[in-house]
Write a structure and sequence with these properties.
- With 420 residues, the protein is of the alpha/beta class.
- Helices cover 30% and strands 26% of the residues.
- It binds uridine-diphosphate-N-acetylglucosamine.
Length: 420
């Protein structure tokens, strides 16, 4: 297992390119199951989760050809197995995203039941209830979700009790090939869902209300493969912006978008950052100043994203003043604060609220990544710590950040990867 060694130092500064969105790439790759004609998907990030999704499609018999530019051609016509096996699902919960499209196109799907993970219990009850409302018969047997339908799925009117990103994506992909009209209410509105919906429309799907909490889908008989580039990764963008803010730096991020990051950019401005942006870039300049503490509460889009909470907690740890961070999406997602406190941070945890009193500088310590975004927060903390911080278990980082050490080095950070 690799580790990162990071020597805290001055500000990070410079220019880097932002990769394609992981959370957009995963459902879009799953959507290739919906069509008989090959799909070509570009701007894929080179990440372990993307590799796992491609391995999953291959394991089902799909023909998957990836070129060196991370553009993939997927032909779902060669499918042999309607099963997502335990070995792959256990490494990536998003494997559940093949359930809806497989059931809609082939009338059968077996997906290993995803368990909980470090950040929470993460049930999939809404995915299953929505598919049942569309006529699926679902059993859970020997740890597998076994879903079938008689003929085609039927359009349904379904209200989602909780706003769920994966649930909305699964049901949207099922509904595009269902018979008749489906209405998904209280749907998630994350930009990645808009990206998936745009891709489905490019394949011939009929979807209204894209970007709102009510999606109206008129099922079609079949979809046609198309060429589609996934959107930029807003969480990677936000992570580098926060790293620059915490280190009092100056940064320009290319091939990304500001319009999908509004709640994050507003908090960075409240922290004292000067933000500028153009059509495909965002820049941040702290003018050498220490960030001011900010308070925030996570909630579904367009509110503040849970995937950016840990990074802001790390910035608050070295900010001026006291910030409060409330996590409302996942029950155990403030877990990284214990590692930050080992580095000299002053963070108190009260239920789902972290109260962070900024200190001047953190101190290096060996720390351990517990999940993807928590690991990013440890990298940020290490950049503003005196001494060499060793971040262990970085396989979490490799699931979501493409070439993090190369990009950080390009920004002047002193960071290297070492095998354990
Ligand atoms: C997606 C993102 C993840 C992000 C999260 C919230 C991907 C691959 N992952 O995860 O990075 O942190 O959205 O923005 O896109 N829930 C239920 N029942 C369900 C489904 C969800 O109770 O059937 C709960 C979850 O436990 C959680 C909340 O709803 O508390 C939101 O989860 P959800 O939006 O589904 O997250 P994911 O799609 O797994």
């Amino acid at each position: 297992m690799d580790k990162l060694i990071i020597s805290g130092g001055g500000p990070i500064s410079g220019e880097i390119r932002i990769s394609g969105s992981k959370n957009s790439a995963l459902p879009i790759l799953a959507s290739t199951l919906l069509t008989k004609t090959p799909m070509c998907i570009g701007n894929l990030p080179h990440l372990n989760d993307v590799t796992t999704m491609l391995a999953l499609l291959r394991s089902m018999g799909l023909s998957v050809t990836l070129n060196e530019k991370m553009r993939v051609e997927v032909d779902a016509n060669t499918i042999k197995e309607y099963t997502a096996p335990y070995d792959l699902v256990k490494t990536m919960r998003a494997s559940i995203l093949v359930l809806g499209p497989m059931l809609a196109r082939f009338g059968e799907a077996n997906v290993s039941f995803p368990g909980g993970c470090a950040i929470g219990s993460r049930p999939v009850d809404i995915h299953l209830r929505g598919l049942e409302a569309m006529g699926a018969i679902i059993d859970v047997d020997e740890g597998y979700i076994r879903a079938k339908c008689d003929g085609k799925l039927k359009g349904a009117h379904f209200f989602m009790d909780i706003v769920t990103v994966g649930g909305t994506e699964n049901l949207l992909m099922a509904a595009v090939l269902a018979e008749g009209k489906t209405v998904l209410e209280n749907a998630a509105r994350e930009p990645e869902i808009v990206d998936l919906a745009n891709c489905l429309c490019a394949m011939g799907a009929k979807i209204e209300g894209i970007g709102t909490d009510t999606l109206v889908i008129e099922g079609v008989d079949e979809l046609t493969g198309c060429q589609y580039d996934v959107m930029p990764d807003r969480i990677e963008t936000g992570t580098y912006l926060v790293a620059a803010a915490a280190t009092r730096g100056q940064i320009k991020l290319k091939d990304t978008r500001a319009d999908i990051l509004e709640s994050v950019l507003l908090k960075l401005e409240a922290a004292g950052a000067h933000i500028t942006s153009g059509e495909d870039w965002v820049a941040l300049d702290m003018k050498g100043k220490r960030p001011k503490a900010v308070s925030l509460k996570t909630a579904p889009y367009p509110a503040f994203p849970t995937d950016m909470q840990a990074q802001f907690t790390a910035m608050n740890a070295v900010a001026e003043g006291v910030g409060t961070v409330i996590e409302t999406i996942f029950e155990n997602r403030l877990i990284q604060i214990h590692e930050l406190n080992r580095m000299g941070a002053d963070i108190k945890l009260e239920g789902n609220t972290a109260i962070i009193t900024g200190v001047d500088r953190l101190k290096a310590a060996p720390v351990m990544a517990t999940d993807l975004r928590a690991s990013a927060s440890l990298v940020i903390a290490a950049l503003v710590a005196d001494g060499d911080t060793i971040v262990d278990r970085i396989y979490h980082i490799d699931r979501g950040y493409e070439c993090i050490e190369e990009k950080m080095q390009q920004l002047g950070a002193n960071i290297k990867r070492v095998p354990s």
